[in-house]
Amino acid sequence: xxxxxxxxxxxxxxxxxxxxxxxxxxxxxxxxxxxxxxxxxxxxxxxxxxxxxxxxxxxxxxxxxxxxxxxxxxxxxxxxxxxxxxxxxxxxxxxxxxxxxxxxxxxxxxxxxxxxxxxxxxxxxxxxxxxxxxxxxxxxxxxxxxxxxxxxxxxxxxxxxxxxxxxxxxxxxxxxxxxxxxxxxxxxxxxxxxxxxxxxxxxxxxxxxxx
Length: 211
Ligand code: GTB
Fold this sequence. Notes:
Blueprint: E1 3-8, H1 21-30, E2 36-40, H2 42-45, H3 48-51, E3 61-64, E4 67-70, H4 72-82, H5 91-121, H6 128-150, H7 162-172, H8 184-194, H9 197-210
Parallel strand pairs: 1-2
Antiparallel strand pairs: 1-3, 3-4
Helix pairs in contact: 1-4, 1-7, 1-9, 5-6, 5-7, 7-8
């Protein structure tokens, strides 16, 4: 069955791979599923045809036959559950890998998004410098905790999993800020993720559209 995802017609990041279709592309590449991409403009995202796929008018979406999904967490979990390669067979290890997916999205990504918002949308406010310092410290706290847990391991819980795919995807957003480099084991962890052939294929595919 053909899988179709949606992505920005032109990503505002100019092909750095930061828009969330990259993590879905990465998961598709890891599990060896071919996919088509429908590019959508910001205007089209708010129109009824796209809102039927994602009520919040965002990308990416995922279509496979009669199934339509939105939310990258749900899409990656769906792929990981249907195909081998992203979740361990052992039930407990599988549950732990899924826990890391949730941790990436609910615990680590939140302060990172707060930081990105402060940088992009609030830098002209008179209180920006003061707030930015608080926001950065909240990001640092999460990174320190994650760094402590990862230690010298390659991946968060044994073999590479959907939990790592999601965590690396979330951390990538920090690259330009320099915050990641304050935690060398996390910077190396992200680099390990980016070095995976599946990630490279995903990155190249979105870059071909956006650069
Ligand atoms: N929780 C949802 C998910 O995980 O699927 C969030 C989806 C989401 O934020 N989608 C964004 C979107 O459609 C694109 S990825 N935004 C348009 C809108 O809301 O109107 C977020 C994103 C956008 C741009 C960059 N960038 O240029 O660096 C990075 C990330």
